[in-house]
Design brief:
Helix 5 (150-160) links the parallel strand 4 (138-142) and strand 5. It is built from 18 helices and 14 strands. It has helices spanning 12-24, 62-71, 79-92, 103-125, 150-160, 198-210, 218-224, 227-230, 236-255, 277-283, 288-295, 330-335, 342-354, 386-403, 413-420, 426-429, 448-453, 457-484, and strands spanning 2-6, 32-36, 129-131, 138-142, 166-169, 173-177, 182-186, 321-325, 362-365, 372-375, 378-381, 407-411, 434-435, 441-445. The protein is elongated and about 85 Å long. The chain has three domains: 2-120, no CATH class; 126-208 and 216-226, no CATH class; 269-484, Uracil-DNA Glycosylase, subunit E, CATH 3.40.470.10. The termini are far apart. Helix 4 packs parallel to helix 5 (150-160), helix 13 (342-354) packs across helix 18 (457-484) and helix 14 (386-403) packs across helix 15. It is α/β, with parallel strands linked by helices and 485 residues long. The strands form four sheets. Strands 3-4-5-6-7 form a five-stranded mixed beta sheet. A five-stranded mixed beta sheet has the order 9-8-12-14-13, with helices on both faces.
Length: 485
């Protein structure tokens, strides 16, 4: 038996070197044990003589190296052996990774996916606390990742918080940024992390301000942000009181809504002309929650590199109307939800005035990562380019196929470009329904941010009324389509 000891849990180079030597010496996977320095050694297994220095080479697909680099960060202690078994088998079948049903291939792909998800969670859930003040301030966060993702996630924080020195402390390893380079040191106990301070208060106030009772879904929240992370997030102390008040506030919002009927009900059997809602649901190709999970790993364009997370669409899969915006803004990027910042508040108000219940529509963006340029501590929104819109369109198409709404409302030029698949001027096309090739109807209007940017108060009021009027047209169209069905 060959006993291999790697330097650390994330020692990919050590694994690669050992695996190469083992394979070139024709050592079968069943004749190797893998451990990490510091683990208890297996005293009772006989040890094989040392391996001869490897001669020769062999190639493995680049895809395997990519998978191995990520999946080795999984906490499963069997990962080193599984990777070696795959390597061994790849030598006999170079196309093995294409066999998705192969149990080893499936397992390694799942591990890599889980690790990527953990990396995204870390991007989204790390909260820095300020230690020291002004010139001497340093930002420190405590985090407990599920897998060994600290080194993988650290470059994101270096890019994102390039001008502030920070440390992320975890029980496994700690990552530090001094403005020039990331360094890694051994893990520490939670007691070494700083406790609450003024930054937390700011974050709590911000969270309370973006909290929308109409969108409170405790189950989904627990899924997206498992409760084990809650204890390290300053905003979680607000979840209980805010959610307790949510029902009351939501009822008040509905009671204060315009007198237009609340017609945006989920699909009922009687709503469908040629088949039951259940039949339609069966034909739906994707489930929104599955799509959301897949999109969390999207790397179709470079925008994922600087954004905190993918901000996927939000709303019921049975919604009959999809509202499409441009891309998440600063607040949406942090919260992981579309239209929660100032443009979202403007949209909420306009929807309410148009008699549309936001809880019954699906709200999404043409581009699902925040694009910005840093200006000191501020992140300035940047318009997405055509290649970015095109790269992201697959998600909009799949949302559309999953929801199959009666109407899509494109808000602004980027949304219109995505919805129609080509540049579509707003003013020329606004105010009347346009049939899309798949039979869905689309309506074009302005983006709520455009209203926010108008400097003149009269123009702002006038344009806001036009925006509400457009949404009322959407409401009317939907009402008519329900009656016609
Ligand atoms: N602007 C958008 O287009 N989408 C958002 O989610 C927020 C602002």
């Amino acid at each position: 038996m060959h006993h291999i000891t790697l330097d650390s849990e994330t020692d990919f180079d050590g694994w690669r070197k050992a695996a190469r030597a083992l394979a070139l010496n024709d050592v079968k996977p069943s004749d190797v044990t893998w451990r990490v320095a510091g683990d208890a050694p297996d005293l009772f297994e006989p040890t094989a003589p040392p391996l001869a220095p490897p001669h020769g080479t062999f190639n493995v697909p680049a895809k395997f190296v990519e998978l191995a680099e990520v999946s080795i960060l999984h906490r499963n202690p069997e990962r080193f052996a599984l990777l070696y078994r795959l390597l061994w088998r790849l030598r006999g079948n170079h196309d093995l990774l294409d066999i998705a049903t192969d149990p080893d291939v499936a397992e390694i792909a799942t591990m890599a996916k889980v690790v990527r998800r953990d990396e995204h969670k870390m991007h989204a859930l790390v909260r820095f606390r300020e230690v020291g003040r002004e010139q001497k301030s340093h930002f420190v966060a405590w985090f407990e990742p599920e897998h060994h993702v600290v080194e993988l996630a650290a470059p994101f924080f270096a890019r994102r918080f390039a001008d502030m020195p920070w440390s992320i402390l975890t029980p496994d390893v700690c990552a530090h940024w001094d403005g020039h380079a990331v360094s890694i040191t051994p893990g520490v106990a939670k007691s070494e992390a700083p406790t609450a301070d003024r930054l937390e208060e700011t974050w709590r106030r911000y969270y309370a301000s973006i909290f929308n009772p109409a969108r409170l879904k405790v189950q989904a929240m627990s899924k997206e942000m498992p409760r084990k992370y809650w204890r390290n997030l300053p905003e979680t102390s607000l979840i209980k009181p805010l959610s307790e008040g949510a029902e009351r506030t939501a009822s008040a919002m509905i009671a204060n809504a315009a007198v237009e009927p609340q017609w945006l009900e989920p699909l009922k059997e009687s709503d469908t002309a040629n088949g039951t809602a259940n039949e339609m649901a069966r034909k739906r190709p994707d489930d929104i929650e599955t799509l959301r999970e897949e999109a969390a790993d999207c790397r179709a364009c470079p925008l994922y590199k600087h954004a905190t997370q993918t901000v996927f669409g939000e709303g019921q899969q049975t919604a009959r109307i999809i509202l499409v915006g441009e891309q998440p803004g600063d607040k949406e990027d942090l919260a992981g939800k579309p239209f929660v910042g100032p443009a979202g508040q403007m949209l909420d108000r306009a929807l309410q005035e148009a008699g549309i219940d936001r809880r019954k529509v699906y709200v999404t963006n043409a581009v699902k990562h925040f694009k910005f340029v840093p200006r000191g501590k501020i992140r300035l929104h940047q318009k997405p380019t055509t290649p970015e819109i095109k790269a992201c369109r697959q998600w909009y198409e799949r949302e559309l196929a999953a929801i199959r709404p009666d109407l899509v409302v494109a808000m602004g030029a980027t949304a219109a470009q995505s919805v129609f698949g080509k540049i579509t001027p707003i003013n020329k096309n606004r105010g009347h329904p346009i049939d899309l090739s798949d039979g869905t109807r689309a309506l074009v209007t302005v983006h709520p941010s455009y209203l926010l940017r108008l400097p003149d108060a009269d123009a702002k009021a006038r344009e806001y009324r036009r925006f509400v009027d457009d949404l009322k047209i959407a409401a009317g169209l939907l009402r008519r389509s329900v009656h016609a069905a």
